[in-house]
Amino acid sequence: MDDLYNKIKTIAELGEIAAELKKRKKKIVHCHGVFDLVHPGHIRHLALAKKEGDILVVTVTADKFVKRGPGRPIFNENLRAETLAALGSVDFVGIDHNPTAVDAIKAIKPDVYVKGQEYENKDKDVTGKIFDEEEAVTSVGGKLFFTDDITFSSSKLINEHLEVYPPEIRKYLRNISEKYPINTIVDHLRSMKKLKILVIGDAIIDQYDYCESMGRSLKAHIVVTRHLSAESFAGGVFATANNIAGLCGEVHLVSVLGTKDSHENFVKDHLKPNITTKYFYKDGVPTTIKRRFVDQALNRKMFQICYMNDDPIAKEQESEIARYVEKIVGDFDLVVISDFGHGLLGNILVKTICAKAKFLTINAQTNSANTGFNLITKYPRADYISIDEPEIRLAAHEKHLDLEDVMKKISENHDYNNLTVTRGSNGSIFYSSQKGFHESPALASKVVDAIGAGDAFYAFTAPCVAQGLPQDLTSFIGNAVGALAVQIVCNREPVDVVDLIKYMTRLLK
């Protein structure tokens, strides 16, 4: 075992070892991957790689960067490294704490960087990372080499033999994969890059204060906690815009900030570069902050404090915003409304948007500040709506009626063409006035934080509906997004399109 562990080094140590070996005229070969389930294809690949030089160095992707969906990797980074170190063909192993192999390549400076034959047609690499890896190895004087031998897919083996998903979900995924090849799905997503999106909604800064329990106070019936650290996120409409901006090329954001503690610079630093903004300002109030206190050890939210003024904006200012929207709305393919009920979207602005938008999508949320007062029914029309089950039941005044009947009632009583209801662990239901219902299961097996997941689902499915994607494909994409989003703390980062493609690729193998 000592020999095995002596093979495992940090990336920096591997760089030093490789440099020293090169001085002794040794030829360095480098392989990189997840290696979640080492199979005969991997063993033969590594054996062939070793033949290209004297020393074989293998780096594995650290757990936090394995974006293959919930439940992956099956084996943690240390076990994966140990497994590879046990192979006779492998001389050294390192765990790469970066999202791509580029930094490891630049540290190790291999003479040969080896990939499997499935990457030889570089255009078929849906992530596009093979181009970055080739550029990196060329920059350090090495070359890219492809092995040509029998290939297996770890993801396919895991999906088929380890029963990661229950039978009904495996059947669902099989049906999707037979109907929609992954390259077709990728082409659909890439086609959305040309869309111009106008996003309108409430500005929110989310803050997490991480604490540890100190027990019960001796002087009062209260729990005492010690403050450890704090982290802020661009939430609300900013989170929606960031998610959309990863998919669509041009996003324009319209919102209202407070003049007291506007947090405008913070927001600017946390928006994607392809988002332009137009802010209006509400005098004497702060931009809304939702501050949640979190037990760090349990990853459990204890309570929340809101710094906000959700009074409706003045009619004069609402009219000013409506005039601005009316002036520019014709330039956009799609209008995305992210309505948290915090005073921005009143009757004047709603009327203008509904009358002028070419294609209108809406998410009107119910939360602790607006329960019962921010219903989707305040919008007379929509081409697509995405809300959760409690929100649609409140809007329909139906607590016990079958959900499909509730959805049909809302759609028929209003001009809503397409409607999705998200149901957490029960997946989602999509209703089209022309095509009826489609139900899709949830794909998440692990939840780190559910906050922001519904917004991410909405942000990705809205362009899908606008582009005319089928119900079942739209729902699959949305639920895949949701499964990735619940692994992200709050709105720390948007769902990355490349990670989404990688995850869907693994699901459909």
UniProtKB/TrEMBL annotation:
InterPro entries: Cyt_trans-like, PfkB_dom, RfaE_dom_I, Ribokinase-like, Rossmann-like_a/b/a_fold
Any Pfam family hit: CTP_transf_like
Domain Cytidyltransferase-like: 32-122
Annotated ranges, domain Carbohydrate kinase PfkB: 196-487
Keyword Nucleotide-binding applies: no
Entry keyword Cell membrane: no
Protein name according to UniProt: Cytidyltransferase
Native source species: candidate division WOR-1 bacterium RIFCSPLOWO2_12_FULL_45_9
